[in-house]
Amino acid sequence: TAKERGKDRHVVFETSMDGRSERRLTLEAGLRYALEREELGVLYQPVVRLADGRDAGAEALVRWRHPQRGVVPPAAFIPLAEETGLIIGIGEQVLREACARAREWRDLLKGGGTPTVWVNLSARQFHEPGLPELVESVLEEAGLDPGSLGLEITEGVAMDESGFGAGRTTATLRNLKELGVRLAVDDFGTGYSSLSYLKRLPLDVLKIDRSFVSGLEKNTEDRAIVSAVATLARDMELEVVAEGVETEEQLHILRELGCSLAQGYYFAKPLPATEVSARLEGGLASATGP
Ligand code: C2E
Ligand code: MG
Ligand code: MG
Ligand code: MG
Fold first, then answer.
1. Which atom of ligand 1 is nearest to the CA of 152?
2. What are phi and psi of 46, to 5 degrees?
């Protein structure tokens, strides 16, 4: 080992670095650089209203356009960004960018609809002091009305898994709610089983996790869960978004179960903002007729 080989600090350093932490450091340095150079991009996945098939809005999904490695998906860098705190800067960039696009979409539709842009918040972003103030100033800067922005938190954040204090979680959500933004629980059904937070928190939307939607055709349990969530949501006056819809059959079942909104490859993959603009314009044209 390095210790046996003496007190050469260089050797100690080299041998104590396993491949994993080395890759981690490289990734962290790369991410830091990407943040400065604005190599981070945002794609938008449409949220479709099942009643008329039109886009009700879109979810902002971050991408890292790595000069050598190509497009890096969020799963490969969000956890590290969360650990290192880089998520704060990344999240702010995504929020600014998403609000600017949503303002463009609203202008494009000239009153013929107000699409909502949804932005994911990680635990660390959610608990960063001053989040409501940041959101308020970004909205103002973009000239976006608060109702056109939605924020997605996970069940873990809603349940205060990281131990910040349930009171603080509720207070932050109330402050955000007071601004007029919409609040969603992402990946609903995959976290803790306690539903008591639904009573406590000022939520607007439940996003049913893809893992339940993907089993809808074959699995009666999944169907029962989605049905129960749709009923629960209706009775609590929440909207439901079904995530990860990939087939027409799933869409039919979701309609039957009373689901009003959906996302998934069946409708559209995450797209560049310009393609979302084109879809919105197309929807407007088909609604008003030639
Ligand atoms: P999420 O918020 O639950 O987003 C849904 C993920 O499912 C996206 O993956 C999306 O591309 C993918 N997806 C959508 N429809 C389908 C489908 O029909 N089939 C399949 N197989 N997948 C589908 P993506 O973009 O890789 O994002 C993964 C996760 O990374 C997100 O899950 C979210 O938790 C996180 N994330 C993405 N962007 C951001 C961000 O800006 N900030 C933070 N904090 N987290 C982000
Ligand atoms: Mg999400
Ligand atoms: Mg989700
Ligand atoms: Mg999900």
1. 2
2. -55, 145
